[in-house]
Amino acid sequence: MKRFIPMVLIVVLMLTLFTACDTTQSGKTSTQQTGDSSTQGKVHKLKVLGPVNESAEIKFAEREEYPIWHKFEEMLKAKNLEITYETVPSDQYS
Predict the structure, then answer these.
(1) 50-70, pLDDT tens digit by residue?
(2) 74-91 per-position pLDDT tens digit
């Protein structure tokens, strides 16, 4: 249970980050256009490094089983983001 709350907070913060970057206003798409159209539709890749702090309740390796994970992936896809996750043993993560 000690690890459940931090995991939920991490997911909420990540969702907040992606909704804060929303380019729509009141459900309507923005008409503002950038001068460079080559970046539209381009997938941006991010790499996330984190410790392996697995608890009995939540395991990062079993993230596909959680319904919120699928919603999170849909939001990433809608924002043209691709995340690569890398975990390291907790004692080596500093």
Answers:
(1) 777 767 777 777 888 888 889
(2) 999 999 999 888 888 877
94: Cα separation from own chain's centroid: 22
* DSSP label of 63: G
Please tell me whether residue 72 adopts helix, strand or coil conformation: helix
The dihedrals phi and psi of 29, each to the nearest 5 degrees, come to: -75, 145
**48 near 93, Cβ under 8 Å?**
no
Element housing 76 (H / E) = helix 67-78
pTM value is 0.48
* E strand segments, the chain: 44-52, 81-89
Whole-number Å distance between alpha carbons of 50 and 37: 34
